[in-house]
């Protein structure tokens, strides 16, 4: 029986182009659905909340779900926002040399209107979004209220705000829908 299971698993890995569903999974308490984490390969970091990754030889852009970081370039804003470069640098350092995987949120779309993948990102099993929020380099946003990691992110955000870390160190900088010009 073990040989059959091992053979089937090896076949699945081969058919998915080397992408394996990791041993770890998360059960969404609101839906009872088990979410699987899929291994990915990082190509580059665009900014603090957007990366490019490789899936089966295809480059895909990914927006980190449930967070917003200040802009690190002038593309969307007239100037680089405070802590934008720091959030990009933190994300780059945090991901370098680690095993990366993504997990989709069953209560949200898997792609946004710009064609970017929307998912949670894990580095060596640690939720990347939580690391950015905990360091005060991202705010929690774009939530509907039922997401599996929302409470963890909200707790990390409250702790960072209380400690006045980075984005929280500038009075009235963090707004309900983004970052106020400072």
Automatic annotation (TrEMBL):
Signal peptide: 1-22
Record key words, sorted: Endonuclease, Hydrolase, Nuclease, Signal
Pfam families listed in its UniProt record: SNase
Cited InterPro entries: SNase_OB-fold_sf, Staphylococal_nuclease_OB-fold
A GO term, aspect molecular function: endonuclease activity
Residue ranges constituting the TNase-like domain according to the UniProt record: 36-170
Protein name: Micrococcal nuclease
